[in-house]
Specification:
It is a single chain. By secondary structure, the protein is mainly α. The chain contains two helices and no strands. It has helices spanning 13-25, 31-68. It starts with 12 loop residues before the first helix and ends with a helix.
């Protein structure tokens, strides 16, 4: 079984109310599950976008190297 970790965040009253409301609207069992899932999806997107940018930059460098060799 995977080890799990606990973390905490500090939010204001208005932020907490919005998180709770969004969790209800999205039918999550709890707002903490909503926060965990939303943070995970956001992190996954950031990583994917970064990897895509790195691949594009690598491809552009390869293209420039090929042009410079002509």
């Amino acid at each position: 079984m995977n080890k799990t970790y606990s973390m905490s965040i500090r939010v204001g009253k208005e932020e907490l109310d919005k998180l709770k409301q969004a969790a209800r609207l999205e039918a999550y069992g709890s707002y903490s599950e909503f926060v965990r899932r939303t943070a995970f999806l956001g992190a996954s997107k950031i990583i994917a976008d970064n990897n895509e940018r790195r691949m594009i930059n690598k491809w552009q460098r390869l293209q420039l190297n090929q042009l410079n060799q002509l």
